[in-house]
Amino acid sequence: MKKILTATLVTLSLAACDNDNHPSPTIIIAPVESHDYLPVPASAFGPALNEQGYYVAEIRDGIYWVTEGVYQAMFITTGEGVIVVDAPPTLGKKLLSAIAEVTEETISHVIYSHSHADHIGAASVFPDTATVIAHEETAKRIERSQNQAIGDPYSFGMFLGGSDVPLPAITFTEEYELTIGNKTLQLINAQDGHAPGNIFINIPEQKVLMVVDIIYPEWTPFGEMAQSENMPAYLHAHELLLNYDFDTLVSGHLGQLGTREDVEKQLAYLRDITDNAATALQTTDFNAIATEYGQDNPWLLFEKYLDSVADTCNEITLDTWAEQLAAADVFTKSHCAKMVESLRID
Ligand SMILES: [Zn+2]
């Protein structure tokens, strides 16, 4: 049955990095017929953007979040300079506008949540004088990505409108406490949740916590378990997160802030996917697929077998979750496939 997206026509002109060297990609969210996919509920969309294409708001006590609807960054006024966390190329110089809108303080510190260019690839827009802080593994990964000598002819973040970013001046392995002016931030190793080097940015006094690419409030995670590298560590990161006494979560994605309930709900969804992937592995008949496709081409056989396992996991999971998380019908199969492979080999 054809279903229609009910979203209002929104054109997000995502001036990538507002960088003269890169074209500005445009993302269009339009009320098009969305094939056979479920409509996204209105509650899953965030606040309206301003004329410049972003939304900025104070969470509490000088802690702000900024979004263009798909990516998020955070900044904090301290009385002695602004601390910024992340620089998605989709926000780019809009981040500078958002900061200038609410404070005259200059940017003194930049924190990278992790090494992925889609979240930090616009960090060159910040002043050279800002001190950059990140996990040691994040620094290593950025250095490797930006090292053209190792054979990658494409520069860091170039397909996202980003460019090379400053290497961190301060790195840590497990925990780093940053006190600037009237704010204290705890930067904590997220133990391989998403990618090695990913961190929790905890602001205990204001009960705000930012962690990127782990939780997707109201939505299913981005495809293939949000590109997480280690499935057990990804699920465990949810439990680690719930150990902190936060009220508001800045997740790095989409147009809304999160809560503890979002973490609990997503963990339940991912645990269901784990169980359903195991059930699918136990019930899919490999021999029947081998009979149909033969064994001469083992890659074809495995492709068909693993696809069938993922299909079964997807169907069982969507029975419960199709209407509980936006776009669950878009990405659950890819989560299932990733979990199936993790159960097989990890
Ligand atoms: Zn990432």
Reconstruct the topology from this structure.
Elements: E1 10-13, E2 26-29, E3 55-60, E4 63-67, E5 72-77, E6 82-85, H1 93-102, E7 107-111, H2 117-120, E8 131-135, H3 136-145, E9 170-172, E10 175-180, E11 183-189, E12 199-203, E13 208-210, H4 223-227, H5 231-242, E14 248-250, H6 260-283, H7 286-293, H8 298-321, H9 328-345
Parallel strand pairs: 6-7, 7-8, 8-9, 13-14
Antiparallel strand pairs: 1-2, 3-4, 4-5, 5-6, 10-11, 11-12, 12-13
Helix pairs in contact: 5-6, 6-8, 6-9, 7-8, 8-9
The structure holds zinc ion.
Zinc ion is lined by residues 114, 116, 119, 194-195, 213.
Describe it for me?
The protein is built from nine helices and 14 strands. It has 346 residues and is an alpha/beta fold. It folds into three domains: 10-43, no CATH class; 49-258, Metallo-beta-lactamase, Chain A; 268-345, no CATH class. A hairpin with a 4-residue loop joins strand 12 (199-203) and strand 13 (208-210). The longest helix has 24 residues, at 260-283. The protein is globular and about 70 Å long. Bound molecules: zinc ion (ZN). This is MBL fold metallo-hydrolase.
